[in-house]
Amino acid sequence: MKRWLIGLTVLSMAVFLWGCGGSSSSGGGEQTVLDGGAGESATELSYWTFVELHGQHFEKMLQKWNEQNPDRQIKLNVTVMPYDDMHNKLSIAVQTGKGAPDIADIEVGKFPDFLAGTPQLEPLNDVIDPYRYTTVESRIDLYSKDGQNYGVPTHVGASVAFYNTEILEAAGIDYATIKTWDDYKQAGIQLYEKTGKYMGTADTSAMWQESMLLSQQGADFTDDSGNPAVDSEAMVKALTLLRDLQDNNVIATIAGGQPDTEEAYGEFNSGNYASAMMPLWFMSRFTNYMADLSGKIAIAPMPVMEEGMPRSYGGGGTGTVVTKTAKDVQLAKDFLAFAKLSLDANIEIWNTLGFDPVNMDVWDMKDVTHNPENQFVQYFVNNPFDVLNEIKDEIRLIKSTAASPTINNVLGTVTLNEIFEDGRDVTEALNDAQQQIEQQLQ
User: Fold this and answer.
1) What is the Cα–Cα distance from 392 to 6, expressed in whole angstroms?
2) Is the predicted pLDDT of residue 347 greater than 70, yes or no?
3) Whose CA is closest to 208, among 285, 113, 289?
4) How far is CA 373 from the centre of its chain?
5) Would you list the DSSP string of 289-332?
6) Quick one: how far is CA 228 from the chain centroid?
7) Stated pTM of the model
């Protein structure tokens, strides 16, 4: 199929999790042994993740694997840990060669750290190859180094606008008429004047908004060589736009610092904010944490600075890896590819996780994407794939580089707070951020 140039964002962030039953707490995290109907001779592999929902997907695929591979059956020991704890523990384990799991999730913003030097991860080219031409190419490339593929992607992460139609309609606003950021601004001014509610959020702890505005301009957080460029003209323009929205009461800071936090879910549930600009995987946050909004949330392309600009970028992501110390490397690799890249796996990724599959053949399978029994189809006002197929040629890339973790840390802990909480001049704040990032990378 055509190789769509779609990619991931650099963001490094924690996600709030919901669990699968049967877990037990231990010092190493929440552990569950999944047998998937395996017999006594099955090989037990260990899997670390920071998202319990991923374990539910692997449980479904484990059952299918064991049914289809009676001579290579697997039991999966799943350990769920908090985001930072898991990545820190995994980093130590692969560096020392002791205590690493067989399979692990690594969030996109952390992945460059695990590719530094000689990666202590198994190359996956041989198991990716059978699926390479049905999978979004840049999703694989993102987790690669020197021609070797080290991670298997989970989703496209196409970013969209989520609108609370109930709030907007009460203020006489039709979300479908919002095409540009100026449209968004005028709608937000009208909403605040009539209801006292905010159109959206001014994020201080994540770079979703900056990523969308940079991608529209064909820019990035780094230059072509991977060096930080957060003081660029495009970045100044992006944050000046957001600051203007804040000054006009269109957006406001939110508890938790950005939409994907437990505190923010409560704010959206209470109807204090009418929209969120997030990757498509944010749908699962609505179904899991904001049940009261069912039937009220519509999905649309993001606003752009000027009509004709690309209306989406790939946000967030997880690359799943096999470590060098895996007890049965080939078995772990074969199962991983089956569980995340096969057509059946991509259908289950949509059904279970609500993610936009990296196998875009699924995007055209209406019996799957428009299944009236699907919880995501039932929850939202319109069908997500109707929007995805409208913007699929416009989904742009924000790179993940060795500088990305430092950039994320400085912007998400200092700079955005200075701009949106303290009212600091945008250009001055970004100039200081550039200097601080460069110093930390030396």
Assistant:
1) 8
2) yes
3) 285
4) 25
5) H-GGGTTTEEEEPPPBSSTTS--EEB---EEEEEBTT-TTHHHH
6) 22
7) 0.84
> 3-class SS at 208?
helix
Phi, psi angle pair for 33, to nearest 5°: -100, 120
In sequence order, the β-bridge partners of residue 106 are: 319
Please tell me whether residue 429 adopts helix, strand or coil conformation. helix
Side chain identity, residue 241: L
CA-nearest of 280, 335, 283, 314 to 57 is: 335
**Helix, strand, coil shares, percent, the chain, to 5:** 45, 15, 40
Q: Bridge-partner residues for 148, per DSSP?
A: 145
DSSP 42: P
* Strands 103-107, 43-49: pairing kind: parallel
The pLDDT tens digits of the residues spanning 386-431 come to: 999 999 989 988 888 889 889 999 999 999 999 999 999 999 999 9
d(CA 300, CA 54): 26
Cα–Cα distance, 76 to 327 (Å, whole number)? 13
Q: 273-323, pLDDT tens digit by residue?
A: 999 999 999 998 999 999 999 999 999 999 999 999 999 998 888 999 999
Flag whether pLDDT at 258 surpasses 70.
Answer: yes
* Contact between residue 124 and residue 151 where contact means Cβ atoms under 8 Å apart: yes
Distance of CA 101 to the CA centre of its chain: 23
DSSP summary character for residue 152:
B
